[in-house]
Give the backbone structure.
Amino acid sequence: MRKKERAELTRAKLIKAAATTFDDKGFRGTSLQDVCEAAGVTKGALYFHFPSKDALALAVIEEHYRGWPPSVDSLLLTSDGRALQALVDLSFQFGSQLVGDPVIRAAVRLVFESEFDEPEPRRAFSGWISAVNTLLEQARAQGDTRDGLDLTATAELLVGVFTGSQLVAQSLTGRKDMIERIRHLWVCFLPGVRPDGAPADLRLEPLALERPRVASPSL
């Protein structure tokens, strides 16, 4: 194996180990020695890639935000081109990843716990708000939102409500009921977004867990 490939593997191993440790202990509770032990590397190897704990935490955050949120085009592929369904699917997809992916959990925790000089964490939500706003704009073009809805304010509110919901889920149940909380979020949120009298035709389930749709009040 070439030196460059070994270095890339070591860096990836450190990010994964750091994510698991940050997720478990938080930023303040994690030491670089903890990460070295989890990754099975020396401190010299760690410092070759990351000069400080802040730099390592930023790498975990960046690893998460390289793939999230997914592109709007990719979301529309799984929703038959319907933007509002794509938005619902996105929330369930991210909720499922929060339960199962330590990198995502650690990144979310680090954004709230860490104090960095760099601006990236302070802009952590901007990509999400932009993606949600884009999907809402497409939903409006498809006639799926009520007239006069402030899309920017709605996007910011939805991201904020989702963020708060996952924090409450983490505190109360370790996010074991995350999917059910997302479902309740949409049951409460959609009547204010969709036109009056809109049919209950949105799938409020993760794609892999879809259940037969039961008639319900207009969503």
User: Anything to note?
Assistant: The mean pLDDT is 86.
